[in-house]
Design a protein that fits this description.
The chain is α+β, with helices and mostly antiparallel strands. It contains 12 helices and 23 strands. It starts with 20 loop residues before the first helix and ends with a helix. 41% of the residues are buried.
Length: 440
């Protein structure tokens, strides 16, 4: 992508409305634009990152055996009346009526709709277990949307829903998602700590929030320092191995971790002081087993191996991609801008032409740009006539992992400078070596 032809509206000044680092950098880098309170457009640079985040989420959901579908954003109120949630949900739900005066709503979540889909087609235990997910825009009329897309009214959610014959089977489905979430966040360059969350009237130990540590996090969290060194489940993990999944869950819940709402001061104080970790955190995912809360009132039953009808056990599993993007920035930035993990960076590299219009610089940049693009790399080519300082500032701001800098003096010697955005390290090498480095 040539920067001279790309739509990336960079802001030089910090926006006054931005209270936290991620909001400020996303606006300055031209990733998002606010359209109304808590509602944002994702501009090209931001959408590239969001798409990569979604692809990783999708990959790990598929790996764990979840099946993707797509459900509508507008839902009939009748389904929510069946479950008993329509009147109980509160003002966060946007309630509307169509031209036939039928009550509708802009979905804040999809338990009722996915349960209706399940009960319409699944009649036997032989079709279980089943986990259905989608990645979809949702709306919750937050009383105080803030921090950009970290807490917005319209947001994107990956929500998955599992269906099982028994509670024991449902726990295995829960453990599979638990492991999939650990892998997902690790691939996004994040160390997420699963923290026990309130299960409400259902009780039990099967509700966890996944928290990443960041100085600007909304909540205070407390955990054992061992989490930093726990191994992430491998890519070839067997999700059908019940004992293996339980072992992962047991390992990652074996030491103390709690948000301020669930914090037990005495239990935390019992940890050796050198092993205590107290910090700010950002919730990036939530998984929840809720048994028959929706399947029972909505009649979601299957015939069991005993020939009798059984109400299925369900769980839900959420990740907010539009929340994850700013969370990654909160965890990875410096005074110059964003530092993207390579897995979600909008571009793999940026080629900076220090003297656009100079024949030698143009030729060197075109060679690098063509070689990397033809090899399938996402490359941004800064071919603008901006000053060098502006080019460097832009490259640092948008956080592309590798900068390839072509100036007249270096190019005359057949060389370019390669800068690592994360470390700031610079290395001079031949043009071919720079190409091979990116392709290696």
């Amino acid at each position: 992508m040539r920067l001279s032809r790309y739509f990336m509206p960079i802001l030089k000044e910090n926006p006054k409305e931005a209270e936290i680092v991620s909001h400020r950098l996303m606006l300055r880098a031209g990733m998002i634009r606010q359209q109304s309170q808590g509602i944002y457009s994702w501009l090209p640079l931001g959408k590239r990152v969001l798409d990569k985040v979604n692809n990783i989420i999708r990959d790990e959901q598929n790996r764990a055996g979840a099946i993707e579908l797509s459900m509508p954003t507008l839902q009939s109120a009748e389904l929510w009346q069946e479950s008993g949630r329509y009147d109980a949900y509160g003002k966060e739900m946007l309630r509307i009526k169509d031209r036939q005066d039928r009550p509708m709503l802009y979905g804040p979540t999809n338990e009722e709709m996915v349960t209706d889909i399940f009960r319409s087609y699944v009649k036997s235990y032989k079709s279980l277990p089943l986990n259905l997910y989608h990645i979809q825009l949702k709306f919750r009329d937050e009383i105080r949307p803030r921090f950009g897309t970290m807490r917005s009214r319209e947001f994107m959610m990956k929500d998955a829903y599992s269906f099982d014959l028994t509670k024991e089977d449902a726990v295995h489905s829960y453990n599979k998602m638990f492991a999939a979430y650990l892998r997902t966040f690790d691939r996004l360059g994040l160390r997420a700590i699963p923290m026990r969350a309130d299960t409400g009237p259902i009780g039990g130990n099967h509700s966890h929030e996944f928290i990443i540590l960041a100085d600007t996090g909304e909540s205070e969290v407390f955990s054992h320092r061992d989490f930093v060194n726990f191994d992430i489940p491998a890519a070839d993990i067997d999700f059908d191995d019940v004992a293996g999944m339980q072992a992962i869950f047991d390992k990652w819940t074996s030491v103390y971790a709690a948000t301020s709402e669930m914090h037990d001061e005495a239990a935390f104080d019992a940890i050796p002081e050198s092993d205590r970790l107290s910090a700010r955190g950002i919730e990036v995912g939530h998984i929840f087993y809720f048994g028959t809360k929706y399947s029972e009132p909505m009649g979601a039953k299957v015939q069991g191996p005993d020939g009798k009808e059984h109400v299925v056990h369900m769980g839900s599993y959420g990740i907010g991609p539009t929340r994850l993007v700013p969370a990654i920035i909160e965890a990875s930035h410096d005074e110059n801008g964003i530092i993207w993990p390579a897995s979600v960076a909008p571009f793999d590299a940026v080629v900076i032409n220090m003297k656009a219009g100079d024949a030698a610089c143009d030729a060197a940049c075109e060679k690098i740009y063509a070689a990397l693009s033809n090899a399938g790399k996402d490359v941004l080519y800064d071919d603008t006539d901006d000053r060098a300082g502006t080019k460097f500032a832009t490259a640092d701001l948008i956080g592309v992992p590798v900068q390839i800098i072509a100036g007249p003096r270096a190019v005359a010697s057949g060389e370019v400078e390669v800068k690592d955005r994360t470390t700031g390290a610079r290395e001079t090498m031949t043009i071919d070596a720079a190409i091979n480095k990116l392709l290696g």
